């Protein structure tokens, strides 16, 4: 059997059996490390509500590293510049095509940079808006109107964008919602509990979709 095919099959198997989350470290100077309490809180919520057994301390994986293939779910966030080298873009493309999932949550300001860099990852695919009836909004928690609004930035409606491969959503970008701020410890943003719950529930839906598809 072709060596590359063997690696591909082993990777797909590992991704299918793992329940782990990692923060994606990217170049360009953007604060990829933003919202330090958000993912641990989301993980704890998922473990309680979904019955997952995710490591409570999320890992960090660099965009160009083979380490990303250990995780079925990668999360990235930030306020500004994002940059992928061609090698990193290829690595991310191979990861997503072999069963991985990338969720990018705009903490405000990353949209124009991310859209440009994701074209390196999928130059032949169209960045499309995800409709409210997509399964990612209909997992354990139902969001009939699609992506919820958590924090206000520019008085725009929340939108979800992404890329599909063979019918599966492989990349999700949540914009004008700021889910990650809603996942943080209560005292960070002083959000009402119902707003935090809405953010955590939407985050759990994304994790559940990624783990089951």
Q: What would you note in describing this structure?
A:
The chain has one domain: Domain of unknown function DUF4159 (Rossmann fold, 3-Layer(aba) Sandwich), CATH 3.40.50. The protein has a 7-stranded mixed sheet. It starts with a helix and ends with a helix. The chain is globular. The protein is 37% helix and 18% strand. A hairpin with a 2-residue loop joins strand 6 and strand 7. The chain is α/β, with parallel strands linked by helices and 213 residues long. This is DUF4159 domain-containing protein. Keywords: Signal. It comes from Sinomicrobium pectinilyticum.
Number of strands: 7
Number of domains: 1
Mean pLDDT: 91
Major sheet size, sense and barrel closure: 7 strands, mixed
Distance from first to last alpha carbon: 26 Å
* Helix proportion range: 25-40%
Question: Any idea of the CATH topology?
Answer: Rossmann fold
Structural class: alpha/beta
Tell me what the CATH architecture is.
3-Layer(aba) Sandwich
Write the H/E string, N to C: HEHEEHEHEEEHHH
- How many helical elements? 7
Strand coverage percent: 15-25%
- Could you give the order of strands across the largest sheet? 2-1-3-4-7-6-5
Q: How would you name the CATH homologous superfamily?
A: Domain of unknown function DUF4159
Please report the first level of CATH classification, the CATH class.
Alpha Beta
Taken from the alpha-carbon principal axes, the silhouette is globular
Low-confidence stretches: 1-14
